[in-house]
Amino acid sequence: MKTIHPKITEVLTGTFKVPAAEILPESTMDSLEMDSLAVAEFAVIIKETLGVDADSEKLYKDATLADISAYIDAAVGSAAAEATVPVSNTR
């Protein structure tokens, strides 16, 4: 089984009281009984803690947790890569 992004697991279990046993790669927000308000709140928490901005209705509502985790990892990786791009001072 693929590991779900730790922040996703932390938010779902801590904030939304989703049982850890239900947090599976193939789970969706619908299967976890997260309504649209909860999904929007989840998206805000992810943005505030990880800096990952996404349309909560498109990404979080229809995607599996594995999809969401991959998206977050890619977005965080892109941000880190951009922050470490060397800048040449030569003219």
From TrEMBL:
Span of domain Carrier: 1-76
PROSITE patterns, per database record: CARRIER
InterPro entries: ACP-like_sf, PP-bd_ACP
Pfam families: PP-binding
Cited SUPFAM superfamilies: ACP-like (SSF47336)
Protein name: Acyl carrier protein
UniProt source species: Streptomyces durocortorensis
